[in-house]
Structure formats: C-alpha cells, structure tokens
Design a protein that fits this description.
mainly alpha
Length: about 250
C-alpha cells in the first residue's frame, strides 16, 4: 500500500529527502528520453508531474510537505479573506522564493486536525487534484496510455501508479469529492488543492472550478483570495522538449 501523504508530496513536486531532485524532475528527465511527443501527454502528467506546459509550485511550498503546503495556502487565503485584505494578484517570479508556513498546530487547517485523519484526507485531496486535472475532458485512451507510461518512469511506485490510473479512469463524482470535506477548513483546502493542480485556461477548467466553489459554498471573495494565494507560489513550468515530429500538434 502506498503512502498517500508521500504521493501528495510527489504530485506537488516536493523535494525527495536527501537529494536536490523531485519526482517531477525525474519524470521530466525520463520524458526527454521518450520517443513520443511529450507535449501530447494528457493534462495529468503535464500538470501534476510537470512534464509539459503550465505552471508549477515553487519556493517554500515545496519544503513543508504537500499536505502542510495545501493547508498553509488555504490558511493564508482564509486569514486574508477574514481580515478584509485585498487579494494579492502578483504571481511568483521564476527566481523568487515565496514564503509559506504550515498552519498553527491547533488550527483546523493543520493536517493533524483532520477529523478523518491525515492519511484519509490526503487521499481526498489527491482525488480532487485528479478530478481537476481531467476537467476539460480531453484525455482519451491514447493519452491515458502515455500518462501510464510516464507514471512508470517517474518512480512513484506500482501501488501509487495503479491508484492514480484507477482514479484517472473513474467517472467524475463531484458529490463524493464535496462530501469528503468534513469541516469548513477542509472545504477551503479542497478547492486550494484543485486550483494547485491546474491553471484554468480553458472554459471547461474554469467552469469546473466555479462549479466546485459553488458546491462547496465558498464565497466569491474567499475564492478570489485562494486564486491569488495559489498564483503567488506558482511559476511557469520548464518547457518540454520540442517534438521530433513537427506534424504532431499538442492539444491544450
């Protein structure tokens, strides 16, 4: 059985202990060696494993651990919202080091306060991220195979790989995702995790996030703060290698 908290670290690109590399780096390196066009991969690998276009998490958000990072971002956004501050609209610069602290240990945003336990809530957040990653509905069977191939190359382990592919192939169950948030803090965290997984540059992705926010009953002003807070720790992902076959056009 895989460790959901570790998998969440992997998906966010947290540092592998004792090294300067991340799972995202390993997946990217493996992609460079692949013979297929890396830009043709589906949204899950391209965004969650950083092997294609999009933006990726940077700075101290990579150092506090995936579960704590999501809680810290959600906590920061919520505190700014409650204080009546204006959302910070400036995204992180590539050479910036955005500062992020975990929530206070006795706060409902801290992972240790999860009523269902940290491990179970980590699974919920992963499922939410996967649901967001496939929100535009363009991942077909061929792209699923490519995702599976790159997951194998990423080194996350067979159990984790099987779980991710199972979730990718499962129909979207928004009711289950929303119901899994047992506290107000977890509702904010669930949306935060979903927004971390994607940059909504299609109508389908934007529509999914709007629907999710509505189902979670998050005020528009709070959603604005989450959007701004997540954007502040994301920078453009490194570009993937150009296709060896110029006739192949990536779908984004």
């Amino acid at each position: 059985m895989f460790d959901p908290k570790k998998l969440l670290d992997d998906l966010l690109g947290s540092k592998i202990p004792g090294t300067d590399s991340t799972v995202r780096d390993k997946a990217g390196q493996a992609t460079q060696l692949a013979k297929d066009n890396p830009l043709a991969a589906g949204a899950l690998v391209a965004v969650l494993l950083g092997t294609g276009a999009g933006r990726q998490v940077t700075g101290t958000a990579l150092k506090v651990g995936g579960l704590a990072a999501i809680g810290g971002l959600a906590y920061k956004a919520y505190q700014n919202y409650k204080a009546g501050n204006a959302p910070e609209q400036t995204a992180a610069a590539p050479d910036a080091e955005p500062q992020l602290l975990p929530p206070p240990s006795n706060d409902s945003f801290h992972p240790s306060q999860a009523p269902q336990g940290e491990t179970e809530f980590a699974l919920t957040l992963i499922r939410a991220m996967i649901a967001a990653a496939k929100a535009d509905g363009h991942i077909d069977e061929d792209e699923r195979k490519k995702i599976g191939d790159k997951l194998s190359l990423s080194g996350i382990g067979s159990d984790a790989e099987q779980f991710l592919m199972q979730e990718l192939n499962s129909p979207l169950d928004l009711d289950a995702i929303v119901a899994a948030a047992q506290t107000e803090a977890q509702k904010v965290e669930l949306y935060t995790a979903s927004r971390l997984a994607i940059d909504p540059d299609t109508r389908a992705e934007r529509g999914y996030l709007d629907l999710l926010a509505g189902r979670l009953q998050l005020p528009d002003a709070l959603v604005d703060h989450i959007e701004a807070t997540v954007s502040s720790v994301k920078v453009p992902a490194a570009p993937a290698a150009p296709s060896a076959n110029p006739s192949v056009n990536p779908r984004w």
